[in-house]
Amino acid sequence: MKPLSPTDQLFLWLEKRQQPMHVGGLQIFSFPEDAPDDYVTRLAEQLRKDTDVTAPFDRRLDSRFAQPVWVHDKHLDLEHHVRFEALPTPGRIRELLGFVSAEHSHLMDRERPLWEFHLLEGLGERQFAIYTKVHHSLMDGVSAMRMFQRMLSADPAKRNMPPIWNLSARPRRDEDSSGSSLWRSISHLLGASGKQLGTVPAVAKELLRTINTARKDPAYNSIFHAPHSLLNQKITGSRRFAAQSYCLKRIKTVCQAYGTTVNDVVTAMCASALRTYLMNQDALPDKPLIAMVPVSLRKYEKSAGDKADGSQAEGNQVGVILANLYTDESHAGTRLRKIHQSMQEGKDRYAHMSPEEIVNYTALTLAPAAFHLLTGVAPKWQTFNVVISNVPGPKETRYWNGAKLEGMYPVSIAMDRLALNMTLTSYKDQIEFGLIGCRRTLPSLQRMLDYLEDGLVELEQGNLS
Length: 465
Hints:
This protein has helices at 6-14, 39-49, 78-81, 93-104, 141-150, 182-189, 194-197, 200-216, 248-258, 262-280, 332-350, 355-375, 447-464; strands at 2-3, 22-30, 59-64, 67-72, 82-86, 115-121, 127-135, 239-247, 290-296, 318-324, 386-391, 399-400, 403-411, 420-427, 430-438. It is an alpha+beta fold and 465 residues long. It has 2 domains: 2-175, Chloramphenicol Acetyltransferase, CATH 3.30.559; 177-395 and 408-464, Chloramphenicol Acetyltransferase (2-Layer Sandwich), CATH 3.30.559. Helix 4 links the parallel strand 5 and strand 6 (115-121). Helix 6 packs across helix 12, helix 8 (200-216) packs across helix 12 and helix 10 packs across helix 11 (332-350). It is globular and about 60 Å long. Residues 315-459 form the O-acyltransferase WSD1 C-terminal domain.
């Protein structure tokens, strides 16, 4: 029996029909070269025989003294969780994304362990896909991605590899549940340790400086000035998932031309896509949209945080920047430069702060957003409009039982008053975008994939001109 943390309980409390609180991932594989045509069917038979289930996949919810706890499920039915399905013909990416859109809309049964693994055949071109979803109270998105990566290998000849539900358990590390989440940041702030309380003076000083700067400069990232937009309405339970890969080399070429980072460029691509999408809906706010962007804090650790063997100390490794997307700027190159400056201002703000101070500063600045998302009673108090999250992935080709991983796409959470989540990850020489949104609030969301490409082309052409 394991009690749920206050933050994990919050994910259960937030869940309702129109607001499922699970995260997921979509992976596309190519058959091994020597595989028969019925390879996926044989793989499904092999998976059915792998009946050992390790933590946390063997846990279900229960209650002790009116408090939710995780308990071992003695009657776990693996057939309920592991599903072998075929895409409808003609088995294009369109059908695959439609499948994920529908499945990600469905709540999971709280009487069972809160996860599902879908093995999908019929994709064509000797490919198959895996779609996995896990409740956020059981595992956050970063943890889920890391666990999935543990399922893979760099060796194409390796066989008899276990599925994700039968991996040996590892201790949960703090950075897996750090400030990349709005709710975990606030939960972290509530910690009563002396180390946390000791950050209060520095955090309060920096927060006051931010507010004063925002009063003098309306363009400065603050906690008060995100406009209300189409993205920030109540939503339905129906989801639309859109995913696509973009060449990392192209993005790095733009970085070199403008003197920016990869994260700056992908953020600018998102800003361009949002600008075009909202303009086509006749719904672009006059004021620029604001994004919540998690950033790594590794470089901000004090030298004492680095161990003698060269590895870095455990601890909270992620903070959040509220980035101005400058969607009121029509020129793509100018927009990128302004985004770079906006992101740099956020990083400079953190440069003289410890990781604990950064996470607590993040929690304070996001507290209004939490209050608004939880209650909806302050519709004019819009802290940010959209989440843009970039999670590092494998740098080399990966395989599972000889099948080559071709692409991996994160599937995150849309919420009331936060109808769109733009999450991306890196894999080899690609940047993989996964967009999840409310199907009714954001019609034709898949067109945003074209707008992302258009945004990158604009930056490339601006570099040539």
